[in-house]
Design a protein that fits this description.
Length: about 160
């Protein structure tokens, strides 16, 4: 008789995409790092935002520290979370890798114009939404005119 095992920790299939393994790693990050990733991914996905951010950083009008990235990530998460939540219901897959596949499909089906970095970070936030929501609730919005507020304007849709 074989021992029961936890399928969440099985080795990856050789057919799994490398992005799936990156997703498994992302799911292990804490909420602050996930939200900082959402903030940075938003910038990295959009070449025009990269150019604008570089110009603002050059003129000392932009702080790209962790706090600013977390604030930008919170703003982005709050904007897209309702869209992701309204997405198609998917059954629980029973393994981290299948859950990752479902989450990325849900994110891409509900939020348009995302690059691969944003899809990955938002999918990880979706899978960890209880922790992410709790962390975001504890943070207040950036003050008007602060470096973080400048960053939020760079990331504005």
């Amino acid at each position: 008789m074989s021992e029961p095992y936890d399928s969440r920790f099985t080795l990856p299939s050789i057919d799994d995409a490398p992005s799936t393994e990156a997703g498994v790693i992302l799911m292990g990050l804490d909420a602050e790092r996930l939200l900082a990733g959402v903030g940075l991914a938003r910038l990295a996905d959009e070449p025009a935002l990269v150019a604008l951010a570089v110009d603002q950083a050059r003129h000392d009008a932009l702080d790209l520290g962790t706090e600013a990235l977390v604030e930008a990530g919170i703003l982005r998460w709050r904007a897209v979370r309702p869209l992701i939540e309204a997405g198609p219901e998917m059954t629980s897959a029973g393994s981290l890798r299948r859950e990752w596949d479902h989450a990325t499909a849900r994110v891409t089906a509900t939020v348009t114009g995302l690059g691969p970095a944003s899809v990955s970070c938002l999918a990880a936030c979706w899978l960890r939404r209880e922790d992410v929501d709790q962390f975001a609730e504890q943070r207040r919005a950036p003050e008007q005119g602060s470096a973080q507020d400048v960053l939020s304007r760079v990331f504005a849709d």
